[in-house]
Amino acid sequence: MPREAEVDIIDAGRAISIALPNGVKQRFHAIWLRDNAWDETTRAAGNGQRLITLSNIPVDTRVSAVKSEAGSLHLTFQPENRTIAFDLNWLADHGYDNDRSRVSGWTSPDIETWDASLGAAIPLADFGAISRDQAALGNWLHGVRRYGFGKLVGGPVENAALFEVASLFGYIRETNYGRHFEVRTEVNPSNLAYTGLGLQAHTDNPYRDPVPTLQILYCLENSAEGGENMVVDGFRAAERLRAENPHGFDLLTRYCARFEYAGSAGICLRSRRPMIELAPDGELVGIRFNNRSTAAIIDVPYEDMADYYAAYRRLGEIIDDTSMEVTFKLAPGESFIVDNTRVLHARKGYSGAGSRWLQGCYADKDGLLSTLSAIELQNRKAA
């Protein structure tokens, strides 16, 4: 990052233009700069939270003078007649004067979509190592953020060990299923409820709003033949659909599907969200796909319903394509975590003698991202 910048006051002081020596140019509005000041009267020293509201800043705020020094920029604001220093690195990291033309369905630079070719790039770590070493934990969490899932080995084979996984980065999200749920089935069971049938790739709890954003599955027993876990990148599936059928992609983002669960006494959960969810600027931010929980779709106009269903069918076919899936079998003491807003998970059927016992729980992505960001910030300070 250059240590000095050339600065001009423009638009009668309502903005400035910064021409950095490396050729990067940015414009900043005076009101934006004043609102984002880091001086002691604007921000609390301990936590960085604002001490003022926007209404405390004069509506006619403008920059009357600038002074560039090595690594910093000093701006004088009127009518307050206050001079505040800004770090040039911070300004470079927070510039907003950029080309915003992006294709609908773009993804964050922190995200890498994948298919079955992911192979050895699966974020994999030893439970004991990341429990003891913050750097190892940060590396694993970085992989989970990038690929939307991760696997752990070497964990304790004991009841409720999955809570120890969640405590590495956040907190359990309790639902009507409790703090955790049992995925315990037996081959040739006495009750058909304990079945070994396979499950299509899906996201969990699409009938909640908001959905649990993380799911952890932890293996305690797995002596049955088959029963491999599968994960599919819903974002890559959405990208494939967009490439094949832009109109169908648009329909699945523009209209809401409906999801419902009323399988327990006193419980009736419903949500109304698109199967492919975009932010207002077109960023791909979520997938909800679960055939078992999809209610009647009634928010699509008659003239679009046939095309909507064709796109819905094709999305399911892409998700079911074996070239999209990463498959692995958990051993006792192993677990995996998925971003439930992005990565679909499934289970192959199993048969023969033996048993299969997993425990599952939900957590939220904000805790994981917060822990990762704190580790990354500490690493930057130490560098």
Supply the CATH class of the largest domain. Alpha Beta
Output the structural class. alpha+beta
As a whole number of angstroms, the C-alpha radius of gyration is 25 Å
Distance from first to last alpha carbon:
15 Å
Q: What is the count of distinct domains?
A: 2
CATH topology of the largest domain: Double-stranded beta-helix
Task: Give the amount of beta strand, in percent.
Answer: 25-35%
Main beta sheet: 6 strands, mixed
Fraction of residues in helices?
Answer: 10-25%
Q: How many E-type strands?
A: 22
* CATH H-tier superfamily of the largest domain: Clavaminate synthase-like
Which residues sit in consecutive blocks of at least 5 with pLDDT less than 50?
189-194
What's the architecture of the largest domain, going by CATH? 4-Layer Sandwich
Rounded mean pLDDT score: 92
Number of helices: 9
Q: Numbering strands along the chain, what is their spatial order in the largest sheet?
A: 7-8-19-11-22-9
Q: How would you describe the shape? A: globular
Tell me what you see in this structure:
The protein has 383 residues and is α+β, with helices and mostly antiparallel strands. 25% of the residues lie in helices and 29% in strands. It has nine helices and 22 strands. It has helices at 30-35, 88-93, 127-132, 134-147, 162-166, 234-244, 246-254, 302-320, 365-382, and strands at residues 6-10, 15-19, 25-29, 62-69, 72-78, 82-87, 124-126, 149-153, 181-186, 199-202, 214-222, 225-226, 229-233, 257-261, 269-273, 276-278, 284-287, 325-328, 335-339, 343-347, 350-351, 355-363. The strands form seven sheets. The protein has a six-stranded mixed sheet with strand order 7-8-19-11-22-9. A four-stranded antiparallel sheet has the order 10-20-13-18. A three-stranded antiparallel sheet has the order 1-2-3. A hairpin with a 5-residue loop joins strand 2 (15-19) and strand 3. Residues 189-194 have low confidence and may be disordered.
